[in-house]
Amino acid sequence: MGDRTNLVELWDAIASAAGTDVQPTFGPPRAGDIPHSLASIEKAKKLFGYDPQFRLRDGFKIVTLFRVAYNFIQLDLAQIN
Hints:
The chain has 81 residues and is an all-alpha fold. It has three helices and no strands. It has one domain (7-22, 40-80). The chain is flat and about 55 Å long.
């Protein structure tokens, strides 16, 4: 899949999946910060047979669907009791 995801995009995907609008707070760059990174998963593929089926953002969409379904079930169960 190999998509580059910056920190803001990752935060947005996590916040969306969690159902929150909390915004991150950024400070000045620190020594050792890595401004750009794109990891290779080739070793994980070779050693463990790792084969991602979803892009990162799509995976978070699935988590969001599960969260919504779970909340709906909880609401429905609360009405039964």
